[in-house]
Design brief:
It is built from 23 helices and 20 strands. It has 551 residues and is of the alpha/beta class. The chain folds into two domains: 143 residues, 2-enoyl-CoA Hydratase, Chain A, domain 1 (Alpha-Beta Complex), CATH 3.90.226.10; 287 residues, 2-enoyl-CoA Hydratase, Chain A, domain 1 (Alpha-Beta Complex), CATH 3.90.226. Strands 8, 11, 13, 14, 15, 17, 18 and 19 form an eight-stranded mixed β-sheet that branches. Helix 5 links the parallel strand 3 and strand 4. Helix 8 packs across helix 9. The protein is globular, with a radius of gyration of 27 Å.
Length: 551
């Protein structure tokens, strides 16, 4: 017998199994994608969740054990993505073991929201606390000598005053009310409730699980096995499961490979996260370091294969000089290519400054932005040293040589000179924004002054052009550039942590909530440390926005 028929039969035989395999796959059905969220893991990317709306999957099972620190803009993007999956007819189950503002807000976008029998629902509304330690520092002999260009630039108030200024209170209240309105309308829209009913539930909270069901905030109170039984009954089968992170990694890799061979033009998404700093930055913490960012933007400007750039900005600002240098690089890039800026949870002060030349700026309604102003000063410790019996004798060649000395505050003459320096920086800031927004300096000054705005209010003020995330930013860039289509290329810029630094940071993040002291005030150390390290340096910084942005 000839060997050829045997070889052919060996090759063809597996094909006979294809109908059996296909029938088995059909019987098992499309997979149910799963995702677990706890205090040590980040929320899933909006793009990954939104992709489920058009993918061959049965739906998503989101298990929220604990909510990580998250900004309102991130929550709004994820809420929109969950609703898109639900509206596509796929199943979205959100299982809550914690039920605060953020968790209940996300669950409102689900087909079926479940809370544990012993978990009370803490949908209580938005609020913030503004600590003021000026008198306490004075008792220690310390003084934070701060000068600001802009009545709303309130970064230094926590260390100089016993209570908030009227401007600070006005701006902060407006932000809180804006975020509160977004929370109420989001839950109401997701659950199909009147906004007044959501407000009433908040005012009555915390709610027992059964009361939360009666109020329409969740659908059921159930244990894990009961949730699994409900899912199986809903789908009519025991679903096979696919973990979201792995599913998204495979899908994204496939899409990137297909895009590479398609020959489509590239749209670069440049991720800029952290404080804006001079020079090359330091590894260990995300930052927007001027030198590597400018180098990358200049390279993209000369790259003929890159037709548009999306700047994904998440920053409360930082160095005014570094912000201006990056602004220049963005301005030169925008002269040659389409540039769209997309703001994350916070893009304020220097974070807004560097993005001003973009042809379009997008944000979420809950993004905190603006804070167009300049602040600076120094930490004065001379009084504390005297209390400890330490005397410092300063010998100066000129009177001006003592300008930045930390032993004493600014003299009246020095304060005037420093104020003039900050005003010069503020006028430059206004000019850059006015040019980018195609408005007069006077019009920008009317909405500047260091005031922080929500994305909702920033749209009304003309500081942004619309709402959206990175995907919408790419679509806007493709449209503005007149491209038939494009492939996305993500670009990470800045110093990166090594393996040891990453491990230490994760360990600290895991244990910090357990060892935090009662007197620890979040954000207290940051501004003081910045002013101590950089006395007399103009800062386009808005740490108050960073604190307010967290849900």
């Amino acid at each position: 017998m000839s060997r050829a028929p045997l070889v052919l039969r060996a090759l063809v035989a597996p094909l006979a199994l294809l109908p059996v395999v296909r029938l088995s796959m059909l019987q098992r059905g499309r997979p149910l994608v799963t995702c677990r969220v706890d205090g040590r893991s980040a929320l899933p990317p909006c793009e990954a969740v939104r992709a489920l709306a058009t993918a061959p999957v049965a739906g998503l099972h989101l298990h929220v054990v604990d909510m990580p620190a998250t900004g309102w803009a991130t929550l709004q993007g994820l809420h929109e993505a969950l609703r898109a999956v639900r509206d596509s007819g796929r199943l979205v189950v959100v299982e809550l073991e914690t039920a605060g503002n953020a968790a209940v807000y996300l669950a409102s976008a689900a087909t079926h929201a479940v809370v544990r029998p012993c978990v009370h629902v803490h949908l209580l509304g938005v609020g913030t606390a503004l600590p003021f330690g000026g008198p306490a520092l004075a008792r220690l002999g310390l003084q934070v000598d701060v000068v600001a260009a802009g009545p709303y630039k309130s970064l230094g108030e926590a260390f100089t005053r016993p209570y908030a200024s009227s401007a600070n209170r006005e701006a902060t209240r407006a932000v809180v009310e804006g975020l509160q309105a977004g929370l109420e309308t989001g839950v109401a829209a997701g659950r199909g409730l009147p906004r007044a009913a959501v407000r009433t539930a908040m005012e009555s909270g915390p709610l027992a699980p059964e009361d939360a069901v009666a109020a329409g905030l969740v659908d059921a109170v159930a244990y894990p096995d009961e949730v699994e039984a409900w899912i199986e009954a809903k789908l009519g089968r025991t679903p096979r499961r696919a973990e979201l992170a792995r599913w998204w990694a495979r899908r994204a890799a496939g899409r990137r490979a297909a895009a590479r061979v398609s020959g489509m033009p590239r749209v670069a998404v440049v991720h800029l996260e952290g404080n804006v700093v001079d020079g090359a930055g330091a590894p260990g913490r995300p930052s927007i370091a001027a030198e590597p960012v400018i180098e990358k933007l200049d390279a993209l400007r000369e790259d003929d294969g890159c037709k548009a750039v999306v700047l994904h900005v998440r920053s409360g600002g930082g160095s005014a000089s570094a912000s201006d240098l990056i602004w220049r690089a963005v301005d030169r890039l925008a002269a040659r290519k389409t540039v769209v800026a997309v703001f994350g949870d916070v893009a304020a002060s220097g974070g807004y400054y560097l993005a001003a030349p973009a042809h379009a700026i997008l944000a979420r309604p809950g993004t905190l932005t603006g804070s167009i102003g300049v602040v600076g000063g120094k930490l004065v410790w001379g009084g504390a040293a005297e209390k400890l019996g330490v005397h410092v004798e300063v010998l100066l060649g000129t009177e001006a040589a003592g300008f930045l000395r930390a032993e004493r505050p600014f003299s009246p003459t020095e304060r005037l000179r420093f104020q003039a320096q900050l005003q010069h920086g503020y006028r430059a800031f206004l000019d850059r924004v006015a040019r980018g927004r195609a408005r007069t300096v006077e019009a920008i000054d009317a909405v500047a002054g260091g005031r922080v705005w929500t994305g909702e209010d920033a749209l009304a003020c003309g500081l942004i052009d619309g709402f959206g995330g990175v995907e919408e930013g790419i679509a806007r860039a493709v449209s503005l550039a007149g491209l038939p289509g494009a492939r996305r290329v993500d670009v990470q810029v800045g110093p990166r942590a090594n393996v040891l630094q990453t491990l230490v940071r994760r360990l600290v993040a895991a244990w910090a909530p357990q060892v935090r002291l009662p007197l620890d005030v979040p954000g207290l150390e940051g501004p003081v440390a910045v002013l101590a390290r950089r006395p007399g340096v103009p800062l386009a910084l808005s740490l108050d926005a960073e604190a307010l942005a967290r849900a």
